[in-house]
Every structure is written in structure tokens, then in C-alpha cells.
Predict the 3D structure of the following.
Amino acid sequence: MRQLQQGDVLLQEIKALPEGVTPVKPRNDGRHILAEGEEHGHAHAIKDLDSVDLYDLNGILYLNVKSPTPLVHEEHNTINLPVGLFEVGQVVEVDPFEQEIHRVRD
Amino acid sequence: MLKWIRLNRKYIGLETEMKQPRILKLTKSQEDQLPRYADKWVNIGLSTDRVSDEERRSIIQNFLLGVLQTPNKSILLLESPISCHYALNLFGAGLNLDQVRNQVENQVRNQVRNQVRNQVWNQVWNQVWNQVWNQVENQVRDQVKNQVKNQVRDFIWPYLEGQWDVFYFSFYDYCEKVLGLDYQIKETFNLYKETVKLGLIYPLEDICIVGNRPTELYLNENRNLHKNGDMAIKWADGWGFWALNGVLVPKWLAETPSEQIDCLKFAEIQNVEIRREFIRKVGIERLIKHLDTHLLDKQSNYELLEIDLKGETGKWPYLKMLNPSIGVWHLECVDKACKTVREAINFRASRLINFESDWNPEALT
């Protein structure tokens, strides 16, 4: 199964969407956002809304790419998403002072 | 309209049967002017040129009269977004500010935006959109305005953004000047266009608060906000913020000379982009040299280092890796169980539910 990574966003191909997913509406600016920086507003974004459907289940995003489309970010190079179903994940790291695992914050 | 038809008759694909002729293909000359118009409007959007108070007052009075049709307001000329915000709290107390914002938005949409858009929409195409609007939007909105907005994100952001609205005007300016479109509400449009010489604009019921352009704005070669040693963007009232390579950073990181920075402070920075800029400023070689490190494993551009953070925190494994998009180094702490680069990379992807094998992406940017 294909794996793709743009910065701290991971895309793992899956065979089928899990039961119970709910559609995610695009943002007001007309984009689907897979992850967003807390501090700087940088975003992993898909602008072509006709090419993808985005779903949510318990805070996990799932992406149905219906036709190839770019995943863009202000800093990272663009990835051309291939057709397929993907689980969207985020990179984690350890805070050595708190000794906690948390998603990478940008 | 006749003038417009005459101007464009020579273009291939002109659909003369339509009421409003439609250009289907740009001429070479028109194409050549796309980057020039994008540059022109990026420069306006990032301008720090001073506009006199007299001119600012005149621009906003004309706008209030000609576009919002509410001329009888006091005008308060200020500088930075934060001073506008304070004034908004003072003069907007008791007002439903979302309602005010919506009223202004509706008026501007009805008076100008929709009318121009309706006239232009069928006559333009993605090429102009992508190469003028998007270019200006990327360089002004994404690289600078959003950083300002993030600094003041608890504020109420106005509908009228002054100089940050340049991407809108870039598109319609190109259509007017290069393609010869003759807007029916040209006078109103031009009054609106003049607001790019202003900062944020908050028209309230009795008063209009008007900000100003910044006085200093520094960019790196990639046109990201950047200034080592001082604020990257600053307004005349002293407000501003620090940024390195487009990343907003604390004052100490921007202003402390790199050789005076305590290398151990990198571990205290939770935000990875700020930590990355810390490493870029200090230098990965100096950082590794000054830290108590031990190489656990190495694979390609990845190294797994054990770093002694001293005191009670002790030793932790860090994955040192090169950002493939911008070629700068990251150090990210991983679980103590990780003894190899492979284990560290897999740990970083371990929150994926459907992750069953090694994390080895076919595309990594």
C-alpha cells in the first residue's frame, strides 16, 4: 500500500473507508486542509475540491482521491496525490521534559 | 464597449456573436505582461512607502462617500493592526462587530465586487487567475499577511484589508489595463482600489478606524519575512514582530547573536519550525559540537543521536534529518526505545491506525 509524506503529514493508503466516517466540508477559503500549523497558519491544503472527498472519524481524517491532484504547502514541495483511499496521519515526537508523545507542532 | 470590441477584434477566437466578446486566448504581448502585473501588485502589497495623513484621510473619505455611501463618520488615523484593535475595542464597545463586518462586506460586494466580477467573469480564464491573482496572493497574503493575521488572530479582522487586498485588485487591474475591459462602475472601483494605500480599515457606525502600512518590512531571497537581529515587520507606533525565513520567532532568537545562544535551549522549543530556525541560525555543526551527543545509528541523511539534556531530563534519542524541500536540518526527539534510524522513523509514524509495515514513503517532501 502506498505511503506519502509532506512534512508532518502522513498519507497511508487503505483498502476501504472505515464504517461511520462523516464528510468534512471545505473551509471558507475553498480548500480542504489536512493539517494546519498552530503558530504560523501554514497548511497542507488541497484546492481542487472536485478531485477529493474528505472524511472524519473520531478526529482521524480519511481522503478519497478521485482524480490526481496536488497537495500544497507554503514550505514543502507539492505532492501529486494519486487516485486512492488514504488515512491521514501526523508525525509525532517526544517532549523530553514532559515525557509525553504529541504530534509535531508547527 | 465599441472601443473594447475594436481593440480585441484581432484576437483569435473572438466570439463576436456574444453580447460581451470573449477572449479565448491571450496574445503573446498579453502573456508577457502577466508577470509584470503580478510584480507590480506584489510591490504595492509589500510597500512601506509613507502616505501622508492628508492623503489617507482623503482616500478613506472618498471611499466612505463613493462606495459605502456613509460619508458622515469621524476618521481615526492609526498605524499598526494592534493600535486599530485597541481603538476597535474602545469605539466598538457594545456593537455587534460581526454584524458591522457583514454589513460592510455586503455593501462592498454589492457596490463594487459583484458588479465588476459579473462583467469580467465570463471573459477571463484560469491563465490570468493563476498568473496574476495567485502569484500576488501567494507572495503577499500567504507569506506576509497571514503572518500578521496570526500575530493578531484573537483580534477581529476587518473585511477591508487595505494593502493586503492587492491580489483582488491585481486581477481586475490586468483585465482593465491589458485586456481593455471597461468597467461600468470604474469610478467606484477606483475609489475602492485606492484603499491599497492604507492599512486595516474598520468602518463603524460613527467612526472609521484606519491603519497604516508598515514602515519596515524585510524579506529573504525566497520573499519570506526575515530579519536577523531586529523585527522583520514594524509599524510607526513600534509594534511589529520577529521572523526568520518566514517563521515567527521569539525576540531573543531573532536578536541574540548566534554565537551567544545557549545550544541546549533548542530542546525547550516545542514548535518544530521555530526549532528548525534555531538550528539554522546556530548551525547544525556548532550545535552538535556544543551538545553532549553520541551517534546511535546513521542511514543516508538520517542520524539517530543520543543527546544529554542535562539535569533530571537526562539523555534522549533525537532523529537528525534534512528537510528535503528546503534543505535545512531538523532534530526531533523520539521514544527512548528507538535504537536505530529505522525504529525512529517508524516511531514518528506510529499514530497511523493502518500502519502495519515500515514507514517508507514513495513521495517525501
Q: What stands out?
A: Chain B touches chain A at residues 142-143, 146-147, 149-150, 246-248, 267-268, 270-274, 309, 313, 316, 323-326, 332-336, 347-355, 359-365 (CB under 8 Å). Chain B has three domains: 9-213, 217-255, 260-364. Residues 85 and 154 of chain B are 10 Å apart (CA to CA).
